[in-house]
Design a protein that fits this description.
CATH topology of the largest domain: Growth Hormone, Chain: A
Structural class: alpha+beta
Order of helices and strands: EEEEHHEEEHHHHHHHHHHHHHHHHH
Keywords: Membrane, Sugar transport, Transmembrane, Transmembrane helix, Transport
Helix content: 55-70%
Pfam family, one: MFS_1
Number of domains: 2
Family: Belongs to the major facilitator superfamily. Organophosphate:Pi antiporter (OPA) (TC 2.A.1.4) family.
Number of helices: 19
Protein name: Glycerol-3-phosphate transporter 1
CATH architecture of the largest domain: Up-down Bundle
InterPro entries: MFS, MFS_dom, MFS_trans_sf
CATH class of the largest domain: Mainly Alpha
Length: 602
């Protein structure tokens, strides 16, 4: 193998329009800074193909500048490979990681502006783009729950049912029961229609849960911007393909099943990618609050998806899929043009303020470089303290949350609220209050966990509190629309609070755990393990609901309360460890006369 140093010399004089660049940490007055790219090639290759990683090189003043191609032995850049990370390379090739490339939109903007983007601007851009990116994922995902009431026939009391006139759904009068059976869409208009819809949800979430493990493994090895773009455009195409069944008059169950399988695979690219990108740009300080606010994208996506799907039902249920599909594809193009996946993509790797974060801007000749840092393997990530209990806890948290995500509009439209049945459009709009409560719950959980410095204690408190909230919503939610909205909001806050905390701040904390010894290439893998395990629960919940709801909705809520209980119990050891640490800190503070915060930070 031969490693080629492809020198891309950057003129540092004032005439280049970029201004002076910040010196490297070990740069002296007698040295000049040059940008170089490290291109690693197998020895038998003749073309310029391989993994490209941008580097900074220090050259003493007066010495010759690097040539365009400098041949050096690959061993100079290839430390001994650890067995734990042997999968990073194969067949004797040098193990290197692909670094993020500068997005074309940012490159064009900097050329026009004449100066690079500041760190704060890049961080704001990352937060905004990842927020709308994952919001569009959830908007496309939410559509199915709103359209279920149209696909699946309903039987209700004739005097209490109110349907929009524009839906043009056929009626079948049944004199014996004095009910009206509204025709749906074959094959979901049969007696086991709810079970078929549950199978559709299972197919989507099962492939999502499986795919997310592979995406996390891939995400630590490729440019996250490209991975996210492919996932969003693919999601848009197959979300729209589901809706085209309306115009093509498709009634084959396996068509819809296959579309959901492929859509779930593309959807799995979203979460590991956006969490890893945000984790690359932000340190642990106030991570819970920042990511709690940022995690509102889940609820915002659910709300917008519900409103869009409900609004387009009057034109035909196919539009409820096509419009969100087009939207996520357009957002994917914006992500491709403007999202910097990491600080190195914009040259900001030397400006990050979090000293505990791995220094990804270390010079090429300083020993510890990006080239030597290999992605963490799946088994190594599982050994990080806290990953397994939080992953299992999220299994049951997402079981509860995704049952509401996929079945809440259906439940509302099939349950008399204040003596009246709501239309599918009204039920879809009303269900957004659950997600609005989830926004508040995610922010509260993140803020409380930051103040207490106790992620497990905060998450367990929310899950235990969700149990009585679920009970009261089932028993008293049908009394009136007023009580339904209040109880739905509170339930959403307590159900989505721990779900948001674990999938954001906890995943980012564990992905940069001290046991990794500064390796920053574990974030996407850890996120995938935690969220992938949770997604398995997300598949189980809606599936069981499809069968249990045919018997009794009370059985469904009993299942949800048991799941919330188990989720809290799984964190019991971590909670006791956090409480013990707090008590020990208080005792130490009392003995030394120092504030508790000083002792904890020591």
């Amino acid at each position: 193998m031969i490693a080629l140093l492809v020198a891309c010399i950057s003129d540092q004089k004032e005439g280049d329009g970029r201004g002076p660049r910040k010196p490297l940490r070990n740069q002296t007055e007698g040295e000049e800074r040059f940008s170089v790219n490290l291109l690693t090639l197998p020895q038998h290759c003749t073309g310029h193909h391989g993994w490209l990683a941008s580097r900074e090189l220090l050259i003493p003043r007066g010495k010759p500048q690097p040539q365009r191609y400098v041949r050096l032995p690959s061993a100079l850049f290839s430390p001994p490979r650890s067995d734990a990370f042997s999968g990073a390379a194969s067949h004797g090739d040098t193990a290197v990681t692909m670094r993020s490339t500068k997005p074309p939109g940012i490159h064009l903007f900097e050329c026009v502006q004449g100066s690079p983007l500041s760190l704060r601007t890049c961080q704001a851009l990352v937060l905004v783009l990842t927020f709308f990116s994952y919001s569009s994922y959830h908007a496309a995902r939410k559509t199915t729950s709103v359209v279920k009431g149209v696909l699946d026939p309903k039987t209700s009391n004739l005097g209490l049912l109110h349907w929009p006139r524009c839906l043009n759904i056929g009626k079948l009068h049944t004199a014996e029961t004095n009910t009206v059976l509204y025709g749906g869409w074959a094959p979901f208009d049969s007696r086991n229609g709810a079970a078929l819809l549950g199978d559709i949800d299972l197919a989507f979430l099962a492939i999502y849960a499986i795919g997310i493990f592979f995406v996390g493994h891939i995400g630590d090895r490729v440019d996250l911007r490209i991975l996210l773009t492919i996932g969003m455009i693919g999601t848009g195409l197959f979300t729209a393909a589901f809706g085209t069944g309306y115009w093509l008059d498709i009634h084959n169950f396996y068509y819809f099943l296959g579309i959901q399988l492929i859509a779930g695979l593309f959807q799995s690219t979203g979460w590991p990618s956006v969490v890893a990108v945000v984790g690359n740009w932000f340190g642990k300080k106030k991570r819970g609050l920042i990511m709690g606010i940022w995690n509102a994208h889940t609820s915002v996506g659910n709300i917008s998806g519900s409103l869009i799907a409900a609004a387009f039902l009057k034109f035909g249920w196919g539009w409820s899929f096509v419009v969100p599909g087009v939207m996520i594809a357009l957002v994917g193009l914006i992500v491709f043009l403007f999202l910097p996946a990491g600080p190195e993509a914009t040259g900001e790797d030397d400006h990050l303020e979090d000293s505990s974060k791995n220094e990804i801007g270390t010079p090429l000749l300083e020993g510890q470089t990006e080239v030597t840092e290999k992605p963490v393997g799946f088994v190594e990530a599982l050994r990080i303290p806290g990953v397994v209990p939080f992953a299992l806890c999220l299994f049951f948290c997402k079981l509860v949350a995704y049952t509401f995500l996929y079945w809440l509009p259906f439940y509302i439209s099939h349950t008399a609220v204040g003596g009246k049945y709501l239309s599918d459009s009204a039920a879809g709009a009303l269900s957004t209050l659950f997600d609005l409560g989830g926004v508040i719950g995610g922010i509260l959980a993140g803020h409380i966990s930051d103040r207490l410095d106790a992620r497990a204690l905060t998450a367990a408190s929310f899950t235990f509190s969700a149990m009585p909230a679920l009970f009261f919503y089932r028993v008293y939610g049908s009394i009136s629309l007023y009580w339904n909205t209040i109880l739905m909001f509170v339930t959403g806050m307590l159900v989505n609070g721990p779900y948001a905390l674990i999938t954001t701040a906890v995943s980012a904390d564990l992905g940069t755990h001290s046991s990794l010894r500064g390796n920053s290439r574990a974030l996407a893998t850890v996120t995938a393990i935690i969220d992938g395990t949770g997604s398995a629960g997300a598949a189980v919940g809606p599936l069981l609901t499809g069968y249990l709801s045919a018997k009794s909705w009370t059985a469904v809520f009993a299942m949800l309360m048991v799941a919330a209980l188990v989720a809290g119990l799984l964190l019991s050891r971590l909670v006791m460890a956090e409480v013990s640490a707090k008590l020990e800190s208080q005792r130490s503070a009392a003995a030394t006369g120092l504030p508790v915060s000083s002792v904890e930070g020591a």
